[in-house]
Amino acid sequence: MASVTEEADRFCDDITIPSGVYVSTDMSESIIPPEVRPKPAVPAKPPHVVAPSPTAPHGPQGLGGLGGGMGYGGVADRAPGSGHLGGGSTLLGYIGIDTIIEQMRKKTMKAGFDFNIMIVGQSGLGKSTLVNTLFKSQVSRWSSAWGSEFKLPKTVEIKAVSHVIEEGGVKMKLTVIDTPGFGDQINNENCWEPISKYINEQYEKFLKEEVNIARKKRIPDTRVHCCLYFISPTGHSLRQLDIEFMKHLSRMVNIVPVIAKSDTMTPDEKNEFKQRVRKELEVCGIEFYPQKEFDDDMEDKNENDKIREAMPFAVVGSDKEYQVNGKRVLGRKTAWGVIEVENPNHCEFALLRDFLIRTHLQDLKEITHNIHYETYRAKRLNENGGLHPISANDTQESNL
């Protein structure tokens, strides 16, 4: 009898029981069947959501580029009642994660946008005219009507002029910071200091609002997001003043160099001058926007490499319209014809406009906040061991 029991024990040891299978040791106990759970109710799917193709085994791609096993809005498919991802399982229904983008759009549209641009260069290079051409309105300090014959006055101090521009229901508060007649003096030593001081003052103003105990829900942003630096079209090389200015300010603001009044050079002269300027900037270790170290991924790198190869943009600005082939165009009239500002065959104004406004405007603001402002903030907090919170009375006095 003992041998029979031993044989039975060895037989049981050889049996492999799958995980999750219930086996009773008591032969008198009956096997309990698994609990039958009701299927969850499937919520209604909004009409604007397209159902996945029946031929796609894993559903459409979800958020973040995830594909296999992803359902509506990037939700992983799960078999009902199971605790692991299942390929090709029945979708539970629409959740609505894709509406987050629309929610963000509505809130941003209500709050509006800010963009602050500084223009620096010698007098007579057409700084104000170019900015007016960029935004197709009188946004510089000179507010006369389009096509006015009056000459622009010289800038005597750093002055910020703000305008609210609206296009397609989108409102943007644009601030143009005009600078002194940069480099116009006989002695131009340290002439960049007033500009550097102004940029740091805006960082300081934002920092004080941040550390305030009762700070505003939305802190007014007066920080300089972009600095357009105008290079004189000499056709030779950069002046020492140009190099010194960009050396001192390239670490505190996004500098975008442009060659002003490029129509004064032939195409060959223009291309040679651009190559020479790029080489000088590289030799002097001057980094202009977009900086290579801030490329997020290969897509950004490939896009920004094309922009860096085209810089500095050789531009022409004009606020006058002329009739060309039956169309009204912005341009400059010469004895040989009309130089069309927005014609890429005539100048690179269209490249500059698309770059500043249509593709990199938000990135300019993010680099200003995350890099330049954070650098200033860390330096200030390390110097003072932290700023003391500002009371409401101090804030009111500073605004007076």
UniProtKB/TrEMBL annotation:
Taxonomic superkingdom: Eukaryota
Coiled coil location: none
Major subcellular site: cytoplasm
Keyword list, A-Z: Cytoplasm, GTP-binding, Nucleotide-binding
Domain Septin-type G positions: 111-383
Location in the cell: Cytoplasm
GO molecular function, one term: GTP binding
A GO CC term attached to the entry: cytoplasm
Family named by the database record: Belongs to the TRAFAC class TrmE-Era-EngA-EngB-Septin-like GTPase superfamily. Septin GTPase family.
Protein name: Neuronal-specific septin-3
Species this protein is from: Esox lucius
